[in-house]
Design a protein that fits this description.
single chain; 387 residues; mainly beta; Immunoglobulin-like; 3 domains; nine-stranded mixed sheet; 33 strands
Amino acid sequence: MIRHCVLFLLLLTLSIAALAAGTTVVVNGKTVTVPVMVVDGKAYADVAALMQILGGKATYDAATNKLVVNSTGTATTPPTTSGGGSTGTVQLAGDNGVLGNVYSICKGSPLYFSLKSAEYTTKQVVIGNSLTVPKAGEKLLLLHFSVQNPQKTERFVRFDSLRLTAIDAMNVNHECTASWGDADSHQPLEISLKPAQHIDVYTAIAVPAKGIVPKLMVQSPNDTDGPVLRYDLHDKVTALAAPIADPADAAGATALETVPGQAGTAYPYGNFDITVEKFATTTDTLENGAPEDGASFQVVTLLMKNQAPSESFLRWDTITAALTGADGEELKYNSMLFASANRSFEQNVKPGQQVRVRIYFTVPKGSTPKTLALKEGESRTYEFEVK
């Protein structure tokens, strides 16, 4: 947009006495004809005709005396490369990026970049042995993109080959510090791309839980090595799903810190996905004894699935659980048991493995359990109505 405006201003103020209406003008190396009028030695070009050539549009409303100029950012020149890749549809960075278009980043050692899609998520993102989990005040901007080597020689690529910066609604920058993942293997991308080799990639940027992320910048890690590619992400990021999404945010971009949970639904919980399967009340003996006279145990059956790429240890204190009575009393959390055996559950869970466990609380005489809250470390809390 800036380049287009500068070109327009230059044409408006060009002091060439010989120009006349219909004079041939050269734009980005292409000879075009636009209406030109010379007044007092200055040449004025028809902005509507000029913007049409540049891939944009200009309209003038005489009633309001308003001139509206829009640039699509698609009028570009194919980059000069060392060969090895197709340049027919490749665009130079330094303008507004369009999802699916291919751009050449880094002048010194070019790399082709194309943003395929973006989504908001609070789920765990796995890259190799690394697990990224957003905190309570965060969500993740998950980016899917591709890179290609356009050079005649191999080009080494990894997470710091490009700088990816998300800009939130408060105009605060959030740098991508996570690894890039190979979309096929889910391993960290650290590879020497052969000439013309193309690979699909993903990564995640931690951004505020509240509000949209309207901008993404992509550039060389060296500030002086080429221009910045800017993406307008308005209406282009897949929204969060219920019940994680705050219903008050029509854009579906705000993640609740306290989520109303539903039994039978799995939710991301640190290294695990956690599902509350059922609630039960009993006066039977559990683990070390029976409840006192008049008291009872509230038992909650959970299904835990390890989403981490390595073994995860699971026991009673892996879960921060709080059971609240109808009068606001917090009831005592006792332990975690096997699904059927009255023994404490303490063991490693393999990657992808599901285990069924029970947690139980002591309910004093006269108290009625109402709300179960499961808080995952620094991440969000899930609240369930006891039924």
